[in-house]
Amino acid sequence: MNITNSTLPIVAIIPAAGIGSRMQSVCPKQYLKIGGLTILEHTINALLKHLRITHIIVAISPNDSYFHTLPLAQDERIITVNGGGERADSVLSGLEYVTQHFSENTWALVHDAARPCLHFGDLDHLIKLIDENVVNPQFCGGILATPVRDTMKRSHQQDNHIEQTVERTTLWHALTPQVFPALLLKQNIENALSQKATITDEASAMEFAGYEPLLVKGRADNIKVTQPEDLALAEFFLSRQITSIRNT
Question: Which superfamily does CATH assign the domain made up of 10-246 to?
């Protein structure tokens, strides 16, 4: 198939059906507020800034009573689908919509609902990666990631005693967004799940199928809000972004 950079469609998928139990909050963590907006709103707004992302599919719980109260829920570029019990189920739901309603050439850019500090520069770098490599038959997609900085330890399975120090030179922290051809990603997730493989992110499904996604170095402040203390850190990083924009 003949694909040109200017016509290659990109649709974002946000799995947002989780309850975020580790946050110990009264609502799912993606609906906690930072600076007057929910975490999910910050996340979606970061993606909407890029003109190459034509639509955003948000996979929410069927029992979600929060999303449709948000102002951006009325945005025609945003579509909701029912998510599942696991991340992979929610991503699959989004991919099902993409493969049914968009071109077969569409790429899916999957981003965590609770990762609101994504910088435009990192997003743009990842999208340019597609444009620069799409004609390369070896290219299957890529993910944002940061090199491991700290000394890494492996513990014994039965307790927390150190078994060994792990060489960190080739280790990376996987981040999101992660971007792959939508149809190929859907097929690989379905195949991995059918074989009971452990799928912790989209790249792991591609790896299980034998592909080698590219690692794209991203900013370390692209954090995922998981623990209560992460909320203050995300607020700090977002405030720095706003200040930076105002000063440009």
Answer: Spore Coat Polysaccharide Biosynthesis Protein SpsA; Chain A (3.90.550.10)
